[in-house]
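Holo prediction — magnesium ion.
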Amino acid sequence: MSSLKEKNKRILIVDDEVDVLDFLKIYLESLGWEVTTVPAIRQAFDELDKQAYFLVITDIAMPDMDGYEFISKIKEKNYGSQIALMTGFGYNPKHTLVKIYKTIRYPCLFKPFNRAKVAEAVQNAFDNYNNGSAAQAVDPNSQN
Ligand SMILES: [Mg+2]
């Protein structure tokens, strides 16, 4: 039995741009979410191993691993988190983004952010997490 109070409100945000991390942390905490930010995917796995997050929001273009590989690994390891992606203006849509849309269909947030869309994506992820819909996602491994 769980009350609203006891629900997991933790969001993990992964981006190599510190400004993006700062903005999302301040904004989402102002809405009552608990936000942890990390600048590299290696650290994201450390956090995910420590505690459960209902949502991971990750940049697609990261220096240590691309976002597609990252979310594939999150699924492999069964962390159970919902996933949303971020991408910046100027990112080449012929590469990772299209691959992600075609195979996984996670929500994607475009920079610069529309606050209402960020808030909505987070709330939807929270609802899906608590309704036990592991994902509106297709397993990327089954597509290959
Ligand atoms: Mg980046």
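READOUT: The chain has a mean pLDDT of 83.
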